[in-house]
Design goal:
It comes from Dictyobacter arantiisoli. This protein is α/β, with parallel strands linked by helices. It contains seven helices and ten strands. The two termini are about 20 Å apart.
Length: about 250
């Protein structure tokens, strides 16, 4: 739909709350030539903002007025000005070195590049057996209801053309934002492309994710989207989610 630019510009959205230590690890890994980094701060009480500004003088800081990851991501999306949006967690679990693979998937015809820990070349050193089982069940349900072939529904490392946001409305407040965004993009007719990704363990601190609470929220999103909105008839080339495995870094450049 939007694969019309040889070298698109990039906005990275990073939701944070008391992530000063992790930002010290994450921000130096982001390529210096990324055009826009937006940090959405959720009422941090540590040195999150000071650390971010020290490490990246060009970073844009947005103070979150609401609460929750979904609210933070939506605020960040509104602030983005570049061609492509990258969703990047602040805890160091997502590797910025993978951004070129996602961007390449978009340049080759994808509209929404969805990270997958279960494609060849992907994996996770962070997910627990309980969370893995829950993600599998939610993914199977989604594929049955929407006649899709997703391998990983709940992973938050996603990259998409900013113009795709014109096609959807988002209102999720918490960790269910990834599922809502994915399903509403799907139903809007964008071409979903899976890209293999390696999820690392959180570097410092404890995750804010609650397996049962947030799993229930995702389940409600899946059922709501299936019951209240119909999936549009897509063109033949869009009817199945594509999959892209990891390439070597020498093959791609931003």
């Amino acid at each position: 739909m939007y694969a019309d630019q040889a070298k698109p510009t990039i906005s990275i959205v990073i939701p944070t709350r008391n992530e000063a230590q992790n930002l010290s690890y994450l921000l130096p890994q982001i390529p210096a030539d990324i055009e826009e980094i937006i940090l959405v701060d959720g009422h941090s009480t540590d040195d999150t903002i000071a650390v971010a500004q020290k490490l990246r003088s060009d970073i844009r800081i947005i103070q979150q007025t609401g609460i929750g990851k979904g609210d933070a991501m939506r605020a960040g999306f509104v602030a983005c000005t570049q061609d492509i949006i990258v969703m990047l967690d602040a805890d160091g679990s997502a590797d910025p070195a993978e951004i070129p693979f996602f961007v390449d998937a978009l340049k080759r015809g994808g509209d929404f590049a969805k990270g997958s820990r279960y494609l060849k070349g992907g994996g996770s050193s962070d997910i627990t057996p309980l969370r893995q089982a829950g993600n599998w069940a939610l993914c199977v349900l989604t594929n049955l209801l929407f006649r899709e072939k997703f391998t990983d529904l709940c992973y938050g490392y996603n990259v998409f053309w900013r113009r795709c946001l014109d096609l959807v409305t988002l209102d999720a407040m918490g960790f269910d934002i990834e599922a809502q965004l994915c399903l509403r993009m799907l139903k809007a007719g964008v071409r979903m492309v899976e890209v293999s990704s390696m999820e690392h363990s959180r570097v410092f601190g404890e995750s804010n994710l609650n397996t049962f609470k947030d799993g229930w929220l995702v389940l409600k999103v899946i059922v709501f989207e299936w019951m209240h909105q119909s999936v549009p008839q897509l063109a033949p080339k869009q009817q199945q989610s594509a999959t892209i495995s990891m390439h070597t870094s020498e093959e791609l450049s931003l």
